[in-house]
Amino acid sequence: MKEFERLGFTSKLTNETFTIEISIDNLINAFELCPNNYYEDKVKKDKKQMFAEFIAQQILNECDSETGDTHISKAFDSVFDLLIEGYEDGSEFIESREGEY
Predict the structure, then answer these.
(1) In terms of domains, do 1 and 41 share one?
(2) If we measure between CA atoms, which residue out of 7, 11, 3, 2 comes closest to residue 79?
(3) Is residue 57 part of a domain?
(4) Residues 3, 40 within the same domain
């Protein structure tokens, strides 16, 4: 298994799965330190689990009614675009069909 950690997030890779983890405390910190949190809103101390459940559901909900994309699929698409648009070199693991069209 390989593990990568940054800013409170951990991504884990096995032969069969790719998972992303964040502790509830780190999730709350991310919300409370969000640059758009102008009024410095805080998660109520006795509602941490409810907050985490809301985020867990919302990340899988549709955020673009035209495409049906979810919040998480948009995050993956932005990383995929790094490879597709050539900003990152994926030639070792991507078989490109560029030039075939």
Answers:
(1) yes
(2) 11
(3) no
(4) yes
Say which residue the tokens 């490109």 belong to. 96
Cβ–Cβ under 8 Å, residues 78 and 64? no
Q: Which two tokens stand for residue 11?
A: 């991504």
Q: In terms of domains, do 1 and 40 share one?
A: yes
Phi, psi of 26 (to 5 degrees): -70, -35
Full 3-state SS string of the chain: CEEEEECCEEEEECCCCEEEEECHHHHHHHHHCCCCCCCCCCCCHHHHHHHHHHHHHHCCCECCCCCCCEHHHHHHHHHHHHHHCCCCCCCCCCCCCCCCC
The answer as to whether 96 is a domain residue is: no
pLDDT tens-digit profile of 35-76?
Answer: 999 999 999 999 999 999 999 999 999 888 899 999 999 999
pTM for the predicted model, two decimal places: 0.83
